């Protein structure tokens, strides 16, 4: 006998579990289906983000940063160590525990909000009066509204599948059992830089190969150049404009043939190779064809501006649809869809979604880059402030980078904020709030910021737009 729900969410990642919780808060009888399994075969909701993405990568980044501080920076504080070692197995076990805590937290939230959870793969069966039949294992659920939030998976190089031993996706990169002597990374995006940073800090010689001619082309050019200089100083080697050739695996490791930016043929021999060349939407197994759910040429679900698909009562959010593949973007869409189902006016401003790369230095931005404003022909003013002039950054011993403001030349409205430096991931939130309220750079410049704090650099960069910084 079918179980009936007002809303069925397929996928328990950031977009899915948040959509399910918000729908339940709005009074809908809600089910969430998710197939992730832990090592014991039990449910592990949270999707890629919680299991093999955002959360575990930050755990390893934190561990490796502690190690690097102990190895290279404790002496500056008068702290001496007679010996230093890294227990990679224990580090990975801690990462796994952090993941489990998040898995368990989501299950608790489902219980708290009375969301019915089903462990397995959800797929469409057919349309029925007033809704849709969704299969999960041996059960069939019926929902008046369906939200697809099945996420994405790592894209492999053609003819080179992931074995998660020598050829690694983000999943395998998080499970390396010992520090490799030489590590190769294809792709200088978020995942490549973060995972490369983890193992570089622990002692691996890391070489990153990137096909694009520019480093972090999506970021503001000035910020990207500052970050690139910092990475080079750390010993994280990044080679741009390469063309990948044949890749061979053997008993000793991986051999990558490639042509550099000038066309010279080279070979990179490494113990392990991380491939981070993007992600692809997860629509296999949804049975989309049987019900006529429209997909685009990438396999993503086609939606309108409000996340409606071509099928009545069927919505889709997160990595499986257009737009940036970011967990917080998925969450915002999940909330908006639940509210739209309730007849409310759920809203997502794609122009105010922050981007963060959790390397050291951290990189974060929101809004327009300087190159975008130039391409649009929009008149703007720019102001920046270096962390080397910030008292708190000096006390931390981390003065790399800057805060940069871009504002409209006439109205002074903030158009973009770009940060490379300590705690950029936290500092960017002030810019998001300011831009959501259409603040001017002078608004930020005239707000009192605590001293000493890294946030003062945000205020000083706002002052710099009017060429009146106080500490630089």
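-> sequence recovered:
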């Amino acid at each position: 006998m079918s179980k009936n729900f007002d809303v069925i969410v397929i996928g328990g990642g950031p977009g899915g579990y948040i959509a399910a919780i918000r729908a339940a808060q709005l009074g809908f009888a809600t089910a969430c289906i998710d197939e992730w399994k832990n090592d014991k075969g039990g449910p592990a909701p949270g999707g890629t983000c919680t299991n093999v993405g955002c959360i575990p990568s930050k755990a390893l980044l934190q561990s490796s940063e502690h190690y690097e501080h102990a190895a290279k920076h404790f002496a500056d504080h008068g702290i001496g160590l007679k010996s230093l070692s890294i227990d990679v197995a224990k580090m990975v076990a801690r990462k796994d525990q952090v993941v489990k805590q998040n898995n368990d937290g989501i299950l608790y939230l489902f219980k708290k909000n009375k969301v019915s959870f089903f462990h397995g793969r959800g797929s469409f069966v057919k349309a029925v009066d007033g809704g849709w039949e969704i299969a999960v294992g041996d059960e069939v659920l019926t929902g008046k509204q369906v939200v697809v939030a099945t996420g994405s998976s790592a894209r492999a190089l053609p003819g080179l599948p992931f074995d998660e031993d020598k050829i690694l996706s983000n999943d395998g990169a998080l499970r390396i059992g010992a520090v490799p002597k030489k590590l190769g990374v294809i792709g200088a995006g978020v995942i490549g830089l973060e995972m490369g940073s983890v193992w570089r800090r622990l002692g691996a010689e890391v070489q990153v190969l990137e096909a694009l001619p520019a480093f972090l082309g999506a970021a503001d050019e000035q910020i990207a150049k500052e970050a690139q200089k910092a990475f080079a100083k750390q010993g994280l080697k990044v080679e741009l404009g390469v063309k990948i050739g044949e890749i061979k695996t053997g008993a000793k490791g991986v051999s990558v043939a490639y042509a550099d930016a000038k066309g010279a043929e080279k070979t990179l021999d490494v113990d392990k190779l991380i491939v981070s060349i993007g992600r692809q939407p997860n629509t296999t197994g949804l049975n989309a064809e049987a019900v006529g759910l429209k997909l685009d040429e990438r396999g993503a679900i086609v939606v309108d501006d409000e996340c409606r698909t071509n099928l009545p009562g069927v919505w889709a959010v997160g990595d499986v649809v257009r737009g940036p593949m970011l967990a917080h973007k998925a969450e915002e869409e999940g909330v908006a869809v639940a509210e739209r189902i309730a007849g409310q006016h759920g809203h997502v401003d794609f122009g105010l979604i922050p981007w963060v790369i959790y390397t050291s230095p951290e990189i974060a931005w929101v809004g327009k880059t300087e190159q975008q404003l130039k391409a649009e022909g929009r008149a703007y003013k720019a102001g920046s402030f270096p962390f080397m002039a910030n008292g708190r950054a000096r006390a931390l011993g981390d003065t790399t980078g800057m805060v940069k403001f871009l504002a409209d030349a006439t109205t002074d409205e903030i158009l973009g904020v770009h940060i490379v430096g300590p705690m950029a991931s936290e500092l960017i939130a002030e810019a998001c709030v300011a831009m959501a309220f259409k603040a001017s750079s002078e608004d930020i410049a005239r707000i009192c910021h605590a001293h000493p704090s890294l946030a003062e650099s945000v205020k000083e960069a706002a002052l710099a737009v009017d060429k009146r910084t106080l500490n630089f």
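The two ends are 71 Å apart (CA to CA).
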